[in-house]
Amino acid sequence: MKRALSSMFMAGSLVLAGALPGLAHAQSATAVPDAKAGEQLFANGDMSRGVLACVTCHGAGGNSTIPANPNLAAMPHEYIAKQLQDFVAQGDKKAVRNGPGGAPSIMATIAPSLTPQDIQNVALYLSQQKLDWNAAGTAKHEKTLDRGQQIWRAGIADRQVPACAACHSANGAGLPGEFPRLAGQHPEYIMEQLKLFRSGDRANAIMGDIVNRMTDPDLAAVADYAAGLR
User: Fold this and answer.
1) What is the C-alpha to C-alpha distance for residues 201 and 118, in angstroms, rounded to an integer?
2) What's the pLDDT tens digit per position in 90-133?
3) pTM score, whole prediction
4) What are residue 97's DSSP bridge partners?
5) How do residues 52-83 score in pLDDT, each as one tens digit?
6) What residue spans define the domains of the chain?
7) Which CATH architecture best describes the domain 2-12+137-228?
8) 31-127 and 2-12+137-228 share a CATH fold
9) Assigned fold of 31-127
10) Which of 18, 79, 133, 217 is deepest in the core (most CB within 10 A)?
11) 66-71: long-range contacts at Cβ-Cβ below 8 A with a sequence spacing of 24 or more?
12) What's residue 29's pLDDT?
């Protein structure tokens, strides 16, 4: 188990290291991020460029009330910026993030219209917002909480599935800039992303390797448990 975790962390470091130069280049091409400008774009969009107001799907201040759409409030600035970039296809290569069956996601019609400066502005604005825990996602299935807790805290040893807490922290807060907060995220959204990791429609070598060793009930249990963390 320790060897498996060590391999996971080494792979994660390599993936992150490979992503940082590109991210740094994108950031260097922009001015200092402007949270006020990000707020304006988030709240109003820019229909002249086909940019829908983010608030429409992600709620006031990034607090989504729609289970299919993620809560973005208080997510790390670097993480949000990277995810927005991942929705954009690069030349002949497909986007890193796609919908089921490889179909373009909704964000694939919006993200390409955002400039590097837009991305940095919106990401900074969202990182400064507070998550509304009263309206956030939470666990809904008491019968699977024990199984979800077991996977979160200890993984699944006989299938070499590492503990989710190793990267996303014991309370689901994540590691800023690297691994997202899952506490308070909608369980339906978490489950959908786990399925996309498994199908490869959301390209992520680390997560894809992990979820391929998990059953659907395992995924559902841990998604529900993660949402209820505080």
Assistant:
1) 25
2) 999 999 999 999 999 999 999 999 999 999 999 999 999 999 99
3) 0.86
4) 202
5) 999 999 999 999 999 999 999 999 999 999 99
6) 2-12+137-228, 31-127
7) Orthogonal Bundle (1.10)
8) yes
9) Cytochrome Bc1 Complex; Chain D, domain 2 (1.10.760)
10) 79
11) 66/186, 67/137, 67/186, 67/187, 67/188, 67/189, 68/186, 68/188, 68/189, 68/192, 69/186, 69/189, 70/185, 70/186, 70/189, 71/131, 71/136, 71/137, 71/184, 71/185, 71/186
12) 59
Q: How far apart are CA 26 and CA 19, in angstroms?
A: 11
For 165, the token pair is: 């807490």
Percent of the chain whose pLDDT exceeds 70: 87
144 token code pair: 């699977």
- Averaged pLDDT, 183-193: 98
Tokens of 103: 């179909």
